[in-house]
Specification:
There is one protein chain. The protein has 912 residues and is mostly helical. Helix 5 runs parallel beside helix 8. A two-stranded antiparallel ribbon has the order 1-2.
Amino acid sequence: MATLIEQPVYPAGQRSVQSAGELPSVEYGLIRAHVFASLVTLVCSVLFGILVATKFTFPEFLGGHAWLTWGRLRYNHTQGIFFGWLGNAFLAFFYYAVPRLANRPVLSRKLGWLLFCIWNFAVVLPGWVLVAAGFSQPLEWAEFPLVVDAFVVLAFILMVFEFVLPFLKARLSDLYVSGWYIIGGIIFTMLAYPVGNFVPELVPGARGAAFSGLWIHDAVGLFVTPFAVAIAYYVIPATTRRPIYSHFLSMVGFWVLFFTYPLNGTHHYVYSAIPMAAQKGAIVASAYLGMDVILVVTNLLLSLRGSSGTTSKDVPLRFVWFGVVSYLLVSLQGSIQALMPVNRFIHFTDWVIGHSHWAMIGFGSFMALGGIAHLWQRIPGTRYNERMMNWSFWLLAGGLTLMVIDLTIAGLVEAQVWESSAPWIDSVRAVASYWLVRTLSGLPILTGFVLFWISLVTGPRVSEATMSATSRVAPENNVAFEEVPAVSHDLIPTGWLSYAHVVAFGAGVGFFALSFLILAILPGKELADEIKRVAPVTMATLTAPEQRGRVIYGREGCAYCHTQQVRSLAADVRRFGAPTEAWETKYDYPQLWGTRRIGPDLSREFNIRPRDWQLTHLYNPRLVVRASIMPPYPWLFSGSANQPTQEGLDLLAYLESLGRARQLSGFDQQALTASVHAATPDMAMASEPSARATPPTVPIAMTGGYSDSAPVLHPASNPDDLQEEVSRGGTLFAANCASCHGSAGRGDGEASASLLPKPANLTAARFSDERLSSVLWNGVAGSGMPPWRQLPTEDLRALVAYIHSLHVPGAALSRPDAETLDEGESLFVANCASCHGGGGAGNGPAAGALAPSPTNFHLKKPTQERAWDVLESGVPGTAMPPWRSQLRADQRRALVEFLRSLYAPAQENSGQ
């Protein structure tokens, strides 16, 4: 079998393209071009990432322009790492390694420069500019727009000619394993990329998600992994001057990788509407993949046995060693987190973000850095600064370790909060410090990458003689390393085994096709049949403004913070409502399920919050949710929250459409009736809700909806205990309420300018415990006041106590005479009872159709000034009109006295 050694050997009858003893021609100019392109795009991409991370702590930072908003920077960060950094780094390695592995030069220098131009000037740079300008695709690892995707496919086709054809001209049975990984990575990525980037635009919703899930994993498994492992298999024997432990094991690992990796993708959508058989298949494949990685890494580490001194001294080899170890650990982590008991807990959290950074930096980037550093010492005319390279390694290793540990802990904290009944914003507050550490950990990573670049342009110049000596000492050409005993671990290809590579390649292509069949096509057909059977025939498509709003939602990266996928888990259902069904996404091109939750799921947003709240939240989220880290979108407005542009209105229309079809269909009520005794389906694990027998679409317990079970929260009767409650309530009020109601509770918070009706002036009325308890528990329908029943009862009671403390009774007023009260009552019955009810309890004939509901004066006693002002001016944003022109001043005074006389709360301060 083949391994790496110095001199090329040619099959009988084949003539060398160069004189005996010479290396095939190597395109050093293209190597340098791709190396420098990779480093420039790497630094840019890492800067994008640091800006993205900084916005978690300082959400207003660089938030005034659409080009620099969080979502667009995040798109450019991931695609820059994928295409700009790793793509160029791998191409540089190909130009160095392929001539040595195939014993032939690459196909064409001109084709190489064409490929360089396409990759950088038709993919990376246009992709960045288009994304920043608002033209993108809201799919994980597929964010560049379709026009750029077309050039990516073209580039991979050119790679087949440039790099694969030289291998095909050689004897594949003699091909070293690095060559197999290069061939497999190019061909399978060329096949997978269109499926993951184009098909979701043609296949909607849950069906498209099945294809997206495959590409999310194939992007790492068929692009990053094969090329990174190819570098490891090349650099290790080339540096240690020893062959790999077993070529046979390397080929087993190669084919098991390509057989199982494409089968993993659906594990990104466990507990979703995708058929459970496909989900379980992906989970099983994930476990097998972990076993394969153990085999590959064992082979690589055994190849390093006895070379600890070399590994510690040779920095490029140390980069590769770190990448190999990271490959093992991150792959085992991925296999574990695909398991349902783990996935249900950590999915959507920062744990997954830590896993991704470990894979793309600790594995992919460290391998690429090792490959570049290795080849850079072996090409003429370069410089190499070993001291800077060593510093680069330690800064990168330290920064990455800190980042991964930090994000892993943050993910566990988030998951714990989500499992509880705490408000969603508590999870944001809980991990704020972890996000700051994550940002700081990016600084040594950026510094490490910059020092790596410096190490390639400073230091002693590599002379021709030095390069030749280094190249000759290192065994770097494709030939049998027969004199080394370790080769006894290999099998000798005799008889039919000589054609095993052909059989294996055919099997690999077959398994690749099988992955799309069993994880995308067949589940898609099953979903299509289910949608046809279940979807309401009256389900309307999105209107033109809603469709435009959907595009805006995607281009701004909203799907990277908010999912539109309620999973069949108790915690999800309790917090967000019924699990997402496939038919709800039948018109979603492409799907926007999302793979991360920073903010809450938005699948059931229909009728949850009023328009003015939504617009204020888009203009500046912290006006209505003080601890929010969501970026502002001022370019969707003309100077203020109550002046949205057409794009702002379109986005609002889309947000208000989410969950509308489900709520209007009556699906939940029908399913609940039909499935009251249904057995728990396979989709749901023990103790989880049935995916069929679902609760109401909007979960009363967590999000909205009126609940008659609201407790009456009486503050403490003991003065000392009451003072403690008031103090704690003040802290809660400042954190949760002051942005709307103002720091003093006068209804003059920052958000009040754009909310209708205005936030209540809590100092202008006396509220009963019953009224405050109901508002805190249920919110106020038709206003920006949300329910707060997620807070512990003790906290709600403290808020009641604090709000009571805001009302300062004025001077004692003389009791109105009976004649004034009688006149006020007559006026009330004639003008107000239809809404407020004959007794003033807010239960008049018209009350049921009004939101906010008419005031119940038995539970709220406005001050004379407040009552007079309302009669004078009305309450904008409600059904309450001004009465200044209908009633005389003396009549309005009589009506004020009568309204205030109705206040008659139940016994309070009972100490309950």
